Amino acid sequence: MKGVKKIHPLNDHQLDKIHDKRREQIKNAALKIFARRGLIGTKMSMIAKEADISQGLSYRYYQSKDELFIELVKDAMEETAEAFASLENMAGSPSEKIKELTKRMLDTRNRHSFMLIQQVQISDEVPDKAKEIIQQYQIPSLIEQLISTFKNGQKSGEFCKGDPTKLLMLYFSVISGLMLLPNEAEENNQDIDIDILMKLLRN
Fold it and tell me: The CATH number of the domain where 68 resides is what?
């Protein structure tokens, strides 16, 4: 018939792209909610609302919030391991390396990932599988890489003297505090926060 458009069914490739885009949309929404409210304080309905989809549609991609949480923890640990490992190959002085790592950690998506990892480490209310994933990545060895960078910075006079492990704990304490601040601040304000943190390490 004239004037009637023929609708062509989507091929497998197009369907896969839609499927992947929807999963990413749900994951991004869930990461924000989990980081802000924790696993116990989060409901699938909250995630669906943040993702701007129906709750029924969200269950087509993830059967439970635990399943979604575990996948996000896996993604977060992969990103964290990659960021810490990159310190060895990163150009620049120890202080420049720590400054670059700090920028990555305070990036909007990354900060939520680090907050998620912290929840798994301190909470007894998360799935055992999430804790197993954290253990698989051998956080102590990742921490050793950071301590080595701090030691090199102390030798070169870039960082203050003292126990490098305590210095690292100070660094993480400040980072954790900055992560909890509202993220509506301009990028310039984040740069100021990072500069203040670097000054603390030098004094």
Answer: 1.10.357.10
Indicate whether 7 belongs to any domain.
Answer: no
Query: Structural domain tally of the chain?
Result: 1
pTM, two decimal places: 0.78
Quote the domain boundaries for residue 185. 12-202
Asked, for residue 174, whether it belongs to a domain, the answer is yes
**Per-residue pLDDT tens over the stretch 75-110:** 999 888 887 777 778 889 999 999 988 888 888 768
The 3-state secondary structure of the chain reads CCCCCCCCCCCHHHHHHHHHHHHHHHHHHHHHHHHHHCCCCCCHHHHHHHHCCCHHHHHHHCCCHHHHHHHHHHHHHHHHHHHHHHHHHCCCCHHHHHHHHHHHHHCHHHHHHHHHHHHHHHCCCCCHHHHHHHHHCCHHHHHHHHHHHHHHHHHCCCCCCCCHHHHHHHHHHHHHHHHHCCCCCCHHHHHHHHHHHHHHHHC
